[in-house]
């Protein structure tokens, strides 16, 4: 047997083994490609679901932010309304305090010194309506400029600068502050409209003050009596309207001119 005949089976065996290995490699490559395609198909809906979830979370976050912003704006709005009301009350009280100080003839420095304040800037801010009064300072002011009648001044100032304390006092029945404030302001304006009163001597001013006090007390007495009589007449009229027969029974006689009445004996 020649050498060529011996090499032919070995060559055929090597070629068959090579073909088998190539087929196995192709099969493994095909399996890897199939797995990649399956993995990609599984990831596509997950990615879409993740995008939808992100969009949903973003929308929910925007809604929650909007709710918080709306609630905050409402709170800020209520605070601004309350602060504006408080500011108007402070401006009114500051103007009133300035009027009282000017009528009393005191400067800012003199009143600050009398109130034991370090400088007059505190009092200036109070009169301008940019600063508040503590309850202790309200009591000092009452002792200084309203010592004869401190209660109305304390009530009026407390309502403007200390709403919490005023609420307690209002629960006790102190609710006529605006009316009293307006009346006191009208009295001050009477004096401020007459420049000649500022040029009077001390004796002349005391005479005018005494005459004004007597006139006020006399007119107050007459007006009180008049209002008392009017109230009694209103009460009697209301009682007669509610029960007209009771008035006839109370008088104990029939109205004149009725049928069946006997002539009086002469």
Automatic annotation (TrEMBL):
Transmembrane parts of this sequence: none
Domain (HTH cro/C1-type): residue spans on this chain: 97-154
SUPFAM superfamilies listed in its UniProt record: lambda repressor-like DNA-binding domains
InterPro entries: Cro/C1-type_HTH, Lambda_DNA-bd_dom_sf
Region (Disordered): 239-266
Record-level Gene Ontology MF annotations: DNA binding
Protein name: HTH cro/C1-type domain-containing protein
Source taxonomy: Bacteria, Pseudomonadati, Pseudomonadota, Gammaproteobacteria, Pseudomonadales
